[in-house]
Amino acid sequence: MATYIFDGTFTGLLSCVFRAFQFKEFNVLISSNQHIQSNLFDENICVESNEMHANRVWQGLKLRLSKTGLRNFYFAFLSENEEAFQHLFNFSIYSFSSSKPIDKDYGHPDVLAVSQWAKQVGREKHRMEAFVRFKKCKDELFLSLVKPDFNVLPLIQKHFEARYKDQRWLIYDEKRNFGIYYDLTKISQVDMNIYDIDKNLEYGASQNFSIELDTEEILYDQLWKDYFKSVNITARKNIKLHIQYVPKRYWRYMNEKII
Q1: Is this prediction's pTM over 0.90?
Q2: How far lies 122's CA from each of 73, 129, 177, 228, in Å?
Q3: Are 150 and 76 contacting, i.e. CB atoms less than 8 angstroms apart?
Q4: I need a surface site. Which of 26, 130, 217, 255 has the fewest CB within 10 A?
Q5: CA 126, CA 111: separation in Å to the nearest integer?
Q6: What's the pLDDT tens digit per position in 173-194?
Q7: Spatial contact of 116 and 150, defined as CB atoms under 8 Å apart
Q8: Full DSSP string of 102-154
Q9: How does pLDDT run across 93-143, given as a tens digit for each residue?
C-alpha cells in the first residue's frame, strides 16, 4: 500500500487529496512523518504542497459541504494528529465520490471521526479563550505563554483582537514555537526563542517570566490572588468538580494558581 507523505500543512494535506484523484489512488495512507519507515511491499510518495492544487480541492469541498462541515474539517486538521489526517483524507475522498452531502452521515467512520476531532479542538479553543492570562511588560506589551494540546492560536485570535483592541498583546505557544502579536492595528505571527521569556520553562514553569515586567504587575497579580481567595468558600470546596471545569494542565497559566 502506498503512503503519501506531506509537510504537515493544510495545503499539503489538500495536495494529497488532489494527487489521489489525479492518479486514482484512493486506498492510501497519509502521514506527515518525513522519516516514516516502510517495508518491502510499501511505497512512500512525497507529495509537495501545491497552492493551486490545494485551492482547487478546497473550493470543491466548499461546494459539497456546509459551513459547519468546512469548520469541522479545518478544526480537525488543527488537532495535528496523524489519525485525524487520515480521516480527513478519507473524508475528502468520500465527499467527492458521493452524489449527496455527507456532513451528517455519522454512520460513516470518517465523517464521525472528523466531527469528534473537531469537538475536541473546539473545546480546547474555548478553554484557551477562558484561561489565557497576561502579564504586563515594561514596554506595556501584554504577554501570555500557553501550551495547548492542539494548534488553536489561529482560532482564538479574533476573540482576543475583539476583546483587547486598546492594548498590544502577544500570545506565544511554547509547544509550537510561534505566537500571535497584536500591534493595535493588525495581528501577525511571530517566532522567537521561548527561553528568552521563561528561563524556568525546562523545569515546567510558565508565566514565570525572566523579562522585565511593569512595576505595577506584581501588585495587580497579588490583588487578583487576594480576590480569588476572598470569594472562595473553603467549606464548599470540591476539588473533583473544580478540576472537571478547570483541568490541572491549565493551572500553570493562571495567576491565582501560581504560588
Answers
A1: no
A2: 12, 11, 21, 27
A3: no
A4: 130
A5: 23
A6: 988 989 999 999 999 999 887 7
A7: no
A8: -TT-TTSHHHHHHHHHHHHHHHHHHHHHHH---EEBTTS-EEEEE--SS--HH
A9: 999 999 999 999 999 999 999 999 999 999 999 999 998 888 888 888 999
CA dihedral 211, 217, 222, 228 (to 10 degrees): -100
**Among 201, 175, 173, residue whose Cα is nearest residue 189:** 173
Contact 56, 31 (CB under 8 A): no
- Percent of the chain as helix, strand, coil, to the nearest 5: 50, 15, 35
| Nearest CA among 100, 96, 72 for reference residue 84 | 72
DSSP SS3 for 21: helix
All three cell numbers of 202: 525546562
| 87, 76 contact by CB (below 8 A) | yes
CA distance 138 to 100: 57
Q: Are strands 142-146 and 169-173 parallel, antiparallel or unpaired?
A: parallel
Question: CA end-to-end span of the chain, whole Å?
Answer: 54
Give the C-alpha distances (Å, rounded to integers) separating 224 from 11, 127, 131, 254: 43, 20, 14, 10
Per-residue pLDDT reduced to its tens digit, 17-60: 999 999 999 999 999 976 566 665 678 899 999 999 999 999 99
